[in-house]
# Entry
Amino acid sequence: MRAFVEFSQQVLSGAALGCIYALIALGFVLIYKATEVVNFAQGELMMLGAFLGYTFISLFGLPFWLGLPLAVVCMAGIGGLLDRIVVRPIVGQPVFAIVMVTLGMGFVARSGASLVPAWGVDTHVFSTPFTGKVTSIGPLVASHDQLAIMATTAALVAVLFLFFRYTRIGIAMQAASQNQLAAYYVGIPVKAICSLIWGLSAAVAAVAGILLAPIVFVHANMGFIGLKAFPAAVLGGFGSIPGAIAGGLVIGVVESLAGFYLPEGFKDVAAYVVLLLVLAIRPQGLFGEGLRKKV
Amino acid sequence: MHVVRKTSYEQDMQLFAHRGVAFWYGVLVLAALLAPLALNTYYLSLLTFVCVYAVAGVGLMLLTGYAGQVSLGHAAFLAAGAYTEAILQAHGIPFVLSLPAAAAVAAALGLAVGIPALRLTGIYLAVATLAFAFIVEEILTRWESVTRGNFGIAVEPLAIGPLSFDAEWKFYYLAFGVLAATLLAARNLLRTKTGRALVALRDSAIAAQSFGVHLAWYKTVAFGLSAGLTGLAGALYAHKIAFISPEQFTVMVSVELLVIVVVGGLGSLHGAVFGAAFIVVLPQAIVLAKSAFGISGGGQAAVDSGVFGLLLLLFMLYEAQGLYGRWIKVRYYLELFPFYRRATFRRQKTYARTERLQ
# Structure
């Protein structure tokens, strides 16, 4: 019984972490689906979101429920601007060039954040309404931070699902992601849609950053967590939204269990081992579209 | 502009297109050989680093630039080469044996990655190699009986028999020699059946397959060769740095190698060398520029990496074809003067064509 409780406890905390991976992976997937760009700066977008949240909530003293939406809206604006200023000029160029550009954006964002006087290279912490509270579910203990992460992820995924399914813009986004040229022909403003997607993706990243902040602190290098979200997105099948969520959860839970049951050192690589195993069996990821070009 | 009129098949097989090209390469080699006379130790050391990175760049260029397979895990092969060299040297194995051994171990590792990677393409391959590199890095840290973990291994200066490479200029000649041999080998390889198969594999796997190119075999070959060359660079790197530890082979190094091939210009051996020069010289240039303008203060490292990122970003916005693309344009401008037209190289803007269907 005790072993089972321990196991469930690890699964729970792994799932919470996995939701963060899932949210970052979701950002990757949204941008990739719409524009075929692999955004290497997604982790940095999350970092900027966390710093904006820290600024509004801790430095300006705004209430959490005002600071959070403010940070998310700001990040959405930043995401849209990035697309307009940086990415759009090289659309149509080789994919590698665009990847390098996002890589450069990541460098600039990291360095920029550590140069802002109030942010710097120190670690910061800010408290949310969930900090320090726990709920017991039977023998299990869940901190409110973890529950908030899981609830927000679930809500966000539901909202995104409805958005893509039922709103005009959402459907236009799907069309643009399937075939940009055809989308142009039927009158969809593809350029604006791409900017919107970047905004949406940055907003999701900001939510992830603010939720993660109480667990790992706010730091200029916190964006490196994106390196774990990458395998999450690929595990689920790059380009699939349910895949990103499932991939994130799998990676989070595996990591948590490996950290608890296996010797030191396995925690950091467990996610990658699982990724390689899955890709060996299903090269297109769990939910990937196993399509082949027809000639 | 020199137009070569080919009158025999032998002309098609020459290493250099015509005498002018051979002449300029001769001048370049001569300049490189005379460099130690003109440069002080600091600049010579930079030049050595350019040679070492260029060897690794050629390795990755074969895989990514020619065979079209992305790798975000080449730091692992660099590490394999460096560690093999360091460990063999510590056991008293002479350099003439340990250098090929370093390349062989890395190549074997490359084959080990290449075979499972056969079914993966694009981003899946990139992230699978990334995962592999993370695992290798962790092994280097934890396998302390062999790698000494985070303590690292000090690497003795290189010596072949009585000939010791203790001075900077001696090691520079060695690195330059290896680079020249690598470039020559790669250039020749690319003119063979294998080279053409790799390019076909990149341009369209399906078309290549229908022309009888054995995809699995050539993908594996590409991985093995690429990893072997990167391992060679790793062995040189270990001697240049004189100390290796797992932190020197992180994912950022893999990214740097990718920057080398992309900024240099995918699909050209020139690009590998240009890119290596970019990645070695730029950070130093930023430091020099800062001291020249008298800027100093907190967050030094942060400023440097930020400026590096910004330059990378602006450069790719300005010249998406990389340094080699720019070089071609400059050359045409000079050769065709005054008839150069920008439209010659204008790419038609394309809408994203999905690459998910490969």
In short: Residues 2-35 of chain A form the longest helix (34 residues). Chain A has a mean pLDDT of 84.
